[in-house]
Amino acid sequence: PCKLVVLLSGSGSNLQAFIDACKNKQLPNTEICAVISNKADAFGLVRAQQAGITTACIDHKQFGSREDFDAALQAKIDEFDADLVVLAGFMRILTPGFVRHYLGRLINIHPSLLPKYPGLHTHQRAIDAGDKEAGATVHFVTEELDGGPPIIQAKIPIFDGDDAATLADRVLSKEHTIYPLAAQWFAEGRLSLRNSKAVLDDKNLPENGVL
Ligand code: GAR
After folding, report:
1. Which helix (H) or strand (E) holds 165?
2. Which of 8, 108, 110, 112 to mutate to test ligand 1, by most ligand atoms within 8 A of the CB atom?
3. FRET label pair with 48: which of 31, 69, 87, 127, CA 20 to 30 Å apart?
4. Which Pfam families does the record match to this protein (predicted)?
């Protein structure tokens, strides 16, 4: 099976989408080996425990530098022999050494239509800019923050009455579809990082890779 390790910092609704996708066989040959949080009180850890998944907390505040934290994180992940490391609301910037170690098997979901709005407060920025559309992007992680090659995006309209919270809710529900799908492609051996591009062997790709 394809062994996943999920890293998170918060609610873990994307983790839940992965747990559900494993249960209902959308991810047939996939096992979530561990969920690791940098925050002890992340609700994602509770979700993992309820699903019988091994959990670990590595608190970034216990480390003197990003390098030391990432080294501990890497050692923990590698205990599980992960094929794919899934960042699911993991709110720490990763060091170049860490990213290189997992290059091609480290993916992230970001709540904007990248390359628009890397970083934080994506929904408020989209509203403030008067954008008509928002969305989320699954991408391979590279050393450039939120700048790695995109794998799939989901787009939704921004309505007149939207605020950052209503928009975040609707984007999140799309995230729950596209993120397990990207992992499914990876587990099937159809998705890889080649020459700094995400390559998908798929005849049935949605148009422009947008779902
Ligand atoms: C998601 O919207 C995800 O795209 C975002 O955090 C949320 C986590 O929700 N990630 C980032 O902003 C990464 N910089 P969840 O904990 O319910 O999955």
Report:
1. helix 164-187
2. 110
3. 69
4. Formyl_trans_N
